[in-house]
């Protein structure tokens, strides 16, 4: 595909994943202008793509986080020096992979129980190494994390006392609020969770233990975190690419990610595209046709998308850009993405971490 640089995106074969860099740049500027002194750590689980990370690094972005080890390995291989694996690392095979990353980058991991701590400490003593560890705090999602307050303090004391382990701070993720539409309920729940995280920090500090970092929030809750004293860092990812579902909750960010698709069949009242659920994630709802509010997607099969169209039907061979309903999952379905500006191909980037779950 390298020969397509300078071509119109509408001359590309389909299905093809597209990023509009002009929109992405505006999304990045929006969040940077509102950081209020907090650090921005971009979540790679949404991006999956080394070329996009390099693009962000040229714009001054240096710290990233990820959900899986393979993502951390991609980040380290392309030169990222500050990586947080926002997940629990279980088993010596994975711990060894984390350890090997430290020759390339400063890496931090999360734990939420003594078993995680013992495994990391035992490994570090056996192989004469060390690990930087954050205690993950459950601030309302009911997934991973210790309960705020005394439970977290107890774990942090064990971290401080553990051999070859450095206490690197606290993480709390309010994932249950990310897609909630703006409301007084969302605001109250977001600030309640943040308060529990900051109160836990203060409790730990009263014990004479330094808390180097408190990191939290995502695209759906970033505005609350940047208003909160005691929070050092936000960790959004979807804000760069966005999708039609997330856009409803965070309208300040526009979708930069689309899937180019071709009209392959039509009949009165509908037409069919050549991209289905294997190319466009539908796990959060139905995608939409970019710039065509009168054309409504109503069914995705594996290789086909059916679109209701009561106006003039497109011709066979016409192209449409589909705005996905879940940007993160859609990136995971593709092996490359076209970077574009004003409809022209700028570059083609491999998506190195797609289709991997290790």
Summarize the structure in words.
By secondary structure, the protein is an alpha/beta fold. It folds into two domains: 34-239, TIM Barrel, CATH 3.20.20.10; 257-350, Beta Barrel (Lyase, Ornithine Decarboxylase, Chain A, domain 1). The chain is built from ten helices and 18 strands. It has helices at 21-32, 50-58, 69-77, 92-101, 114-126, 150-161, 184-206, 222-225, 244-249, 327-331, and strands at 16-20, 39-40, 42-43, 63-66, 82-88, 106-111, 131-137, 165-172, 214-216, 233-234, 257-267, 270-273, 288-289, 295-300, 305-309, 319-323, 336-341, 344-350. Helix 5 links the parallel strand 6 (106-111) and strand 7.
Q: Uncertain regions: pLDDT < 50 for 5+ in a row?
A: none
Gross geometry: elongated
Q: What order do the SSEs take from the amino end to the carboxyl end, as H and E?
A: EHEEHEHEHEHEHEHEHEHEEEEEEHEE
CATH overall fold name of the largest domain: TIM Barrel
Q: Count the domains.
A: 2
The count of β-strands is 18
Kindly report the oligomeric state of this protein: single chain
- CATH H-level superfamily title of the largest domain: Alanine racemase
CATH architecture classification of the largest domain: Alpha-Beta Barrel
Question: How helical, in percent, are the residues?
Answer: 25-40%
Measured on Cα atoms, how large is the radius of gyration?
22 Å
Please tally the helical runs, counting DSSP H or I stretches of 4 or more residues.
10
Task: Write the topology of this structure.
Elements: E1 16-20, H1 21-32, E2 39-40, E3 42-43, H2 50-58, E4 63-66, H3 69-77, E5 82-88, H4 92-101, E6 106-111, H5 114-126, E7 131-137, H6 150-161, E8 165-172, H7 184-206, E9 214-216, H8 222-225, E10 233-234, H9 244-249, E11 257-267, E12 270-273, E13 288-289, E14 295-300, E15 305-309, E16 319-323, H10 327-331, E17 336-341, E18 344-350
Parallel strand pairs: 1-17, 2-10, 3-4, 4-5, 5-6, 6-7, 7-8, 8-9, 9-10
Antiparallel strand pairs: 1-11, 11-12, 11-16, 12-15, 13-16, 14-15, 17-18
